[in-house]
């Protein structure tokens, strides 16, 4: 069928399953095609004009099944969306220029998306490619956003003479995840997740100047690799469990060096960072390079003669590996470059391990920038044992890595003040003698006090709570009693820590209810998880019968169990040779040992439970919605129906909370279409059938609810919202990263990066006080709370087998008890230079009190 007129072509049913055509050629402006199954390659191209096709615009192809893909030729300002493409893929050719083209929400079973000399402002959004990738050739200012890409034997996302913003994509099991090459520099590559690829992010061949930030790279052969493409900014990435975390290599100075590697978490790789070839002039700072099996940093350079003699600078990093840095002085003999004789003067490579001593908070918490923090996982590292008598955060001696590599300003540990803060009572008066009636103004000068009381008559009745009260003494007398007392609302806690799991496997994703702790454990096969429950009342552990079937961690990382009373709920996978075939939500009753499926679907996530109600995230409608199931009635209810995505559901009593993600798309004639998400917290009341928007910031996430209070992340802070008063309160004060808030009663817990490692903190709502729960230098994450028990995942117990480090995450618990105030009773004491005399009498009082808690001045002459 050849279409030459401006029309909308819609199947009667708009169901592509029951309306099949052999072929379409769309050759005019303003055409919409929807609801068909098309057997042959669908074409969008204008009428033939000599050897070219005329341009067409404003075409829409949506909601079709395309058996052999779709191609466009000189088509622009058009949309291809919500189609299922069985083979071949989507091909966009021309016209070059300031035009737009949107490809969104398509499922491509086998095939690619290719834009070749196409419109400059393409938007490739939320597509799923099960066996193929995305390729851009000779185009610019494109947006590649929110796509899922897997199993391409070449490249997940490849750019050739092109530039793009590449954001929020997930790329799994490809040869190269993101591959800018041949003059494809200046890209923004951020918030992507890359798992199990040969190379994760790989700019090469004169494709430098990229901003690579906030990405997660796990289980790739090489996480980020830079080849002949210098001047990149590699910032704030999480790089873990790769063979090589970051690899910088090349053989031209303009293409290989001058990269900035800053603020990254580089851990549990074989080699954390490798510099090789003619790579120089790189800056490596503010990174955490930890628990890498062979080397934290491995330097294997070819040349330090001009122009390759730029110094690689390392400072303000935390190195915590068995071998933190190895500077190989031999000539390069790798596979990528021709080996050549070099003149390495003195047998060394140009490396600097510190900057000049400069005022400013360093990565270890000290007050000066200088060198690096040199640790060892067993606690014997130089920075862990070095003296620092002047407490400036710089070690008292230099650290010699090798004969040529010396850190002259090594950082040392700066533990926080762990002592409780007690109030210190103090006051002054404007006069100390005179004729009666004598008017005296008292001024409270107490430290760490949050309240005060004054009892001038010493009769147990509070006379004033002001800071500067005035009292009139009507008669003369002998003043022999003084009771200075200030009050503090800072409760003192007794923290009792216990290790719950002690085997040499990994435990993660813990939750707690009463005496039961539920968690994932990979003890049967390393890296593959099942569900266990630990009973605190009997100190017994039980495996829950599941069909998670040994799926690897990147599947199980979103298997968060939930528990209420004697019921455990989770998302369960069924797999075939490691590939997901289906998933479902199951409930297990601990009392009856009975397991019950609720729903079977591949699109369900994040269940939570309260009483008989189970809520979860469901993608059955093509976007994230919140659903609920009543275990008593067997009834399923859809909670959300709007067009935005919802996720992260939580339930308490009759209230369900979640994150709502509204997609904001706008058009700029210079930049084309741009997209971002406005994330806010919403609540649904089952009793009143009403939905309420809780936040308006656009950056809220991770909601949890207990009673009439809910907590959530908002940017880098923890916030609380009181449903009774409709009041929002910011809980945290520091700007470092936070994660995983949880609430029970008047206590909030979360993981905090404020000490440059993850620690657990608690906030008491009633007293407005914050308490650090963990102080171990390893990471503590994923806290949960029930009553006075706080649990978390702890990394302190890593160990080595044949020189290879094993992570060994464990579950720990802290029991929080409020210290009895009577254990530190105040002791009132004073000295007076005179105790009697005729009025007017001048007396000098000296305060000798201990552990005073309030200020009470009784001076009535009795």
Brief digest:
By secondary structure, the chain is mainly beta. Helix content is 1%, strand content 48%.
Describe the secondary structure blueprint for this structure.
Layout: E1 2-3, E2 8-10, E3 20-21, E4 25-26, E5 32-34, E6 37-38, E7 42-45, E8 48-49, E9 52-53, E10 56-57, E11 60-62, E12 65-66, E13 70-73, E14 75-76, E15 78-81, E16 84-85, E17 89-93, E18 97-104, E19 107-108, E20 112-116, E21 119-125, E22 128-129, E23 134-137, E24 142-145, E25 148-150, E26 155-160, E27 164-167, E28 170-172, E29 176-181, E30 188-190, E31 193-195, E32 199-201, E33 211-213, E34 216-218, E35 222-227, E36 233-235, E37 238-240, E38 244-249, H1 253-256, E39 260-262, E40 265-267, E41 271-277, E42 283-285, E43 288-290, E44 295-301, E45 312-315, E46 318-320, E47 325-328, E48 351-352, E49 358-359, E50 368-369, E51 373-375, H2 382-385, E52 399-400, E53 406-407, E54 427-429, E55 438-444, E56 451-452, E57 470-473, E58 486-487, E59 493-499, E60 507-513, E61 516-525, E62 528-535, E63 540-543, H3 553-556, E64 562-564, E65 567-576, E66 579-589, E67 594-600, E68 604-610, E69 613-618, E70 625-630, E71 635-638, E72 645-652, E73 655-668, E74 672-685, E75 690-693, E76 700-706, E77 709-714, ...
Parallel strand pairs: 1-4, 2-5, 3-6, 4-7, 5-11, 6-12, 7-13, 10-14, 11-15, 12-16, 13-17, 15-18, 16-19, 17-20, 18-21, 19-22, 20-23, 21-24, 22-25, 23-26, 24-27, 25-28, 26-29, 27-30, 28-31, 29-32, 30-33, 31-34, 32-35, 33-36, 34-37, 35-38, 36-39, 37-40, 38-41, 39-42, 40-43, 41-44, 42-45, 43-46, ...
Antiparallel strand pairs: 8-9, 49-50, 52-53, 54-55, 55-57, 56-58, 59-88, 60-61, 61-62, 62-63, 64-65, 65-66, 66-67, 68-69, 69-70, 70-71, 72-73, 73-74, 74-75, 76-77, 77-78, 78-79, 80-81, 81-82, 82-83, 84-85, 85-88, 86-87, 89-90
């Amino acid at each position: 069928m050849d279409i030459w007129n401006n029309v909308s072509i819609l199947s009667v049913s708009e169901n592509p399953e029951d309306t099949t055509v052999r072929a379409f050629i769309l050759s005019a402006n303003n055409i919409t095609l929807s609801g068909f199954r098309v057997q042959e390659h669908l074409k969008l191209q204008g009428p033939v004009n000599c050897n070219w096709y005329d341009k067409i615009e404003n075409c829409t192809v949506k909601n079709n099944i395309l058996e052999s893909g779709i191609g466009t030729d000189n088509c622009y300002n058009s949309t291809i969306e919500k189609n299922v493409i069985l083979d071949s893929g989507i091909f966009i050719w021309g016209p070059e220029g300031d035009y737009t083209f949107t490809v969104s929400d398509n499922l491509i079973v086998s095939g690619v998306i290719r834009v070749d000399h196409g419109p400059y402002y393409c938007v490739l959004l939320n597509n799923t490619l099960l066996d193929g990738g995305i390729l851009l050739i000779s185009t610019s200012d494109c947006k590649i956003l929110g796509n899922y890409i897997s199993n391409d034997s070449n490249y997940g996302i490849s750019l050739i003479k092109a530039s793009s913003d590449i954001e929020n994509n997930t790329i799994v099991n490809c040869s190269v995840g993101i591959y800018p090459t041949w003059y494809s520099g200046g890209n923004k590559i951020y918030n992507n997740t890359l798992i199990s690829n040969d190379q994760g992010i790989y700019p090469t061949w004169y494709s430098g100047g990229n901003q690579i930030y906030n990405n997660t790279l796990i289980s790739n052969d090489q996480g980020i690799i830079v080849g002949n493409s210098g001047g990149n900014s590699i910032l704030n990435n999480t790089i873990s469990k790769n063979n090589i975390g970051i690899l910088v290599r090349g053989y031209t100075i303009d293409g290989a060096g001058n990269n900035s590697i800053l603020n990254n978490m580089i851990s549990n790789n074989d080699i954390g960072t490798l510099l090789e070839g003619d790579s120089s002039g790189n800056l490596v700072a503010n990174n955490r390079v930890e628990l890498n099996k062979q080397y934290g940093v491995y330097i294997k350079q070819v040349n330090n003669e001009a122009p390759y003699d730029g110094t690689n600078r390392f400072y303000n990093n935390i190195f915590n590996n068995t071998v933190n840095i190895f500077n190989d002085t031999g000539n390069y003999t790798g596979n990528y470059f021709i080996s050549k004789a070099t003149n390495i003067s003195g047998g060394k490579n140009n490396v600097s391990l510190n900057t000049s001593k400069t005022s400013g908070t360093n990565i270890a918490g000290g007050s000066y920038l200088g060198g690096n923090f040199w640790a060892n996982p067993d606690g014997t590292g130089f920075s862990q044992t070095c003296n620092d008598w002047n407490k400036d955060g710089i070690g008292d001696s230099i650290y010699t890595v090798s004969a040529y590599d010396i850190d002259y300003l090594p950082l040392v540990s700066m533990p926080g003040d762990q002592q409780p803060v007690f109030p210190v009572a103090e006051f002054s008066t404007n006069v100390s003698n005179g004729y009666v009636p004598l008017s005296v103004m008292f001024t409270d000068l107490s430290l760490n006090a949050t309240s005060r009381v004054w009892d001038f008559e010493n009769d147990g009745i509070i006379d004033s709570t002001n800071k500067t009260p005035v009292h009139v003494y009507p008669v003369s007398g002998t003043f022999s009693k003084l009771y200075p007392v200030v009050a503090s609302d800072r409760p003192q806690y007794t923290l009792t820590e216990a290790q719950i799991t002690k085997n040499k496997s990994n435990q993660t994703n813990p939750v707690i209810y009463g005496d039961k702790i539920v968690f994932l454990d990979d003890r049967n096969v390393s890296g593959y998880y099942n569900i266990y429950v630990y009973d605190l009342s009997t100190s017994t552990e039980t495996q829950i019968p599941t069909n998670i079937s040994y799926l690897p961690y990147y599947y199980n990382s979103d298997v968060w169990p939930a528990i209420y009373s004697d019921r455990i709920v989770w998302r369960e996978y069924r797999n075939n040779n490691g590939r997901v075939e289906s998933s479902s939500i199951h409930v297990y009753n601990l009392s009856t040992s009975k397991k019950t499926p609720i729903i079977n679907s591949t699109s369900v996530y994040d269940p939570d439970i309260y009483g008989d109600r189970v809520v979860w995230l469901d993608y059955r409608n093509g976007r994230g919605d919140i659903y609920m199931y009543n275990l008593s009635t067997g009834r399923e209810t859809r909670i959300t129906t709007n067009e935005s995505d919802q996720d992260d559901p939580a339930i308490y009593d009759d209230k369900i909370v979640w994150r709502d993600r509204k997609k904001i798309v706008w058009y700029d004639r210079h930049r084309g279409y741009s997209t971002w998400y406005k994330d806010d917290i919403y609540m649904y009341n089952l009793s009143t059938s009403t939905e309420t928007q809780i936040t308006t910031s656009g950056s809220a996430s991770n909601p949890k609810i207990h009673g009439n209070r809910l907590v959530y992340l908002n940017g880098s802070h923890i916030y609380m919202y009181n449903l009774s008063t409709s009041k929002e309160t910011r809980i945290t004060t520091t700007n470092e990263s936070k994660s995983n808030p949880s609430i029970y009663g008047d206590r909030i817990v979360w993981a905090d990066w404020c000490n440059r490692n993850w620690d657990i903190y608690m906030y008491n709502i009633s007293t407005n006080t914050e308490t650090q729960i963990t102080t171990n230098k390893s990471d503590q994450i994923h806290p949960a709370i029930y009553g006075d028990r706080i649990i978390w995942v702890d990394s302190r117990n890593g160990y080595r087998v044949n020189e290879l480090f094993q992570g060994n995450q464990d579950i720990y618990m802290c029991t929080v008890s409020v210290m009895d105030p009577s254990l530190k009773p105040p002791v009132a004491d004073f000295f007076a230079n005179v105790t009697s005399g005729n009025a007017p009498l001048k007396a000098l009082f000296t305060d000798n009190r201990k552990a005073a808690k309030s200020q009470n001045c009784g001076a009535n002459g009795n």
